[in-house]
Amino acid sequence: MEILTLENELLRQKAQPVKSLKNKPESLQETVQLLLEKAKKGKGIGLAGPQIGISERIFVVNIEKDVPKVFINPAIIETSLETVKYEEGCLSIPGIWADVIRPKTVKVQAWNEKGRPFTVEADGLYARVILHEYDHLEGVLFIDRLPEQKRNKIIAKIAKRAKK
Description:
By secondary structure, the chain is an alpha+beta fold. β4 and β5 form a beta hairpin. It has 3 helices and 7 strands. The mean pLDDT is 92. The two termini are 24 Å apart. The chain has one domain: Peptide Deformylase, CATH 3.90.45.10. The longest helix has 17 residues, at 25-41. Helix content is 29%, strand content 31%.
């Protein structure tokens, strides 16, 4: 199972909720391990289910080395009015980076891999990665958050690269 790229329609679909955390702990653990392995292999700090072909609302964030956080069925509760610009990339759009404006802070509720609910208030890079991965669950890519002209240049660059 490889990381899906921009051409795959699954990346543009809204992911479905993880239905039961109690009934499938083994498959849930397998999904979490797969997400962590693929993120690490790709040198990423986050990865969402849809990026590996699993259209469920789950993602992992691993900013602190070897202290990953699993978000299952996350809900954004609050974002700050203050925004920050920061360069982003994506394992599903390799070799492309661009400055993206996002809220400075985020508050999110989710369940962990053990089926326990938690709430996180994050800022800085942690908030950015949460928001980026949450976007994947909504079928949104970071390039969708760019001004139209910049986005079109990137899409043209990707198309040209694909023809080679």
